[in-house]
Amino acid sequence: MRPGSDLVFIGDVHLDRDDPDLPAFLAYLRGLPRVAGRVVLMGDLFNLWIGAPEQEQAHHREVLACLRDLRSVGTEVHYLEGNRDYRIARAHGGDVEAGTSVLGGALFTLRLPRPAEGRS
Prior knowledge:
With 120 residues, this protein is of the alpha/beta class. The chain has a single domain, classed as Purple Acid Phosphatase, chain A, domain 2 (4-Layer Sandwich). Helix content is 24%, strand content 21%. It contains 3 helices and 7 strands; from the N terminus they run βαββαββαββ. The protein has helices at residues 22-31, 58-72, 88-91; strands at 6-10, 36-41, 49-50, 76-80, 85-86, 95-96, 107-109. The strands form 2 sheets. The chain has a 5-stranded mixed β-sheet, with helices on one face. Strands 3-5 form a two-stranded parallel sheet. α1 links the parallel β1 and β2. The longest helix is centred in the middle third of the chain and has 15 residues, at 58-72. It is globular and about 35 Å long. It starts with 5 loop residues before the first strand and ends in an 11-residue tail after the last strand.
């Protein structure tokens, strides 16, 4: 398969503040554009993620910045809310697609603004 065309699934990472695995996960995300055209995040990237930007911590913001960078180079990023994720679609501009509810979660496309769109 040509670079940038793979479909990658990631789930249940359960990152927390001061997590020793955060740098490795960020490096993994940064390397995805070479191989992935689409990334599906299967929920629970964090031990807890409340969709309120004012409650997000540094580890949330670092992962979101990497996801924003993925989108900026054309990689599609989709998210399936997990049981530790609350209102992520609403907080991060995701388009919740009708009829895709899975185990109480919602599948949506992350529409994190690119820096040129006014939010970094």
